[in-house]
Amino acid sequence: MTERKAQLSRRTVLRGLGTAVALPFLEALTSAPGIAAGTKSSTTGRPPRRAAFLFVPNGVHVEHWTPQTTDYDFGLPPILQPLAEFQEDLLVLSGLTHDKGRANGDGPGDHARAASVFLTGTQPFKTEGANIRVGVSVDQVAARQIGRLTRFPSIELGCEGTRSSGNCDSGYSCSYTNNISWSSSTSPAAKELDPRRVFDRLFADDLRNGDAGKSRYRRLRERKSILDFVLDDTRTLRDELSSADRRKIDEYFTNIREIERRVERIEDLEAAPKVVSTPVTEPRGLPKTAKETLAYEDHLRLMSDLLVLAFQGDVTRVASFMFARAGSNRSYREIGVPEGHHSLSHHQDDPVKLEKIAQINTFHTRQLAYLLDRLKSIPEGEGTLLDNCMILYGSALGDGNRHNHDNLPVLLSGKGGGTIDTGRHVRLPQETPMCNLFVSMLDRLGADVEAFGDSTGRLSELTT
User: What is the pTM of this model?
Assistant: First the structure.
């Protein structure tokens, strides 16, 4: 290996004062021999596979969610219409069940169980005290096995918070309603709501050292971009790249800077004085506008963009994202639904309420479409970033009025690096454990497990 290639093979992160910008999948990096293990899929020359797990609360309007036909060329029902452009990238999976979301002798509390079982497949211990207990979630199982390959084993995102203790649902702790990711049976992996914190985490060299703090302070004081701190490394790198890789780097940096500007625009000005003479705590970035509901959509999309950056730069290969907490009673005035989501979900077959539930469900699938569009717009390897992802979207409640945990609304998007046959509606046998899907996803991520939760096997239906 030449000295030039040796240098290039080690250059997977650009660094400056307290700053680290991971590189996207580049031909030069993946073809150069001797790349450090785990930086990219260097042994195969193929991009890595990633998985994201997206949660929406309160179930769906089942009749407007479920396609009437199966297999290829299925007709998209009303709630899935925003995903028409991505139909060939979708699997609609009907028939999946989370048995441990059911009461099983524990009485009411379906919303808390829906969130806590969603990625664990484990019955939560009913308590409103500190003695919470549920299983380790599938994202964290993956993070334990493949997290060493990236800067962060996983990231956990959300757009709605609540208190973490006390009773939030019929004797269940708020920890259950507020989290889907669990690093141990007694410890949720707390989600991050603040886009500024997520952005800084993705691009800080080491949040524990002084240089990371100095970098944030200088950016705030001098209104600098994160990219200003890696200029020297960037110039050197560009000299070593092909024109195609230079174009990819330019597009990547443009995307970073555009997201950085959006974070800056929506920061709470009260948290960051305009004139700074001494170091300050990092500013908050929660979107705030005159219309709360519009800010919510901005928040969802900005967090989606940050997730895309994390996957594109191979900062992590595992993510979870709660659109809202379990039992959320958020209103959606921007789409003409001023009533609370949870209240509407107890529709009792009222057609007016059902229509409003469908409107909320469609709002959420529009946000999924936004994420898929961002992933599909990024070329990677012989396809796109979306092709190398598995984006699971759904709820652990079917119908919010019935509080059922069978026939769950579940979508799987992306081809998992060519291992998933998409563009289909697959109707699985009733009572198929959702954990069978999780085991199949873990296989594709390279996380070796025999079983997970209440799984009974693997989903052979992901391929044909």
Answer: 0.91
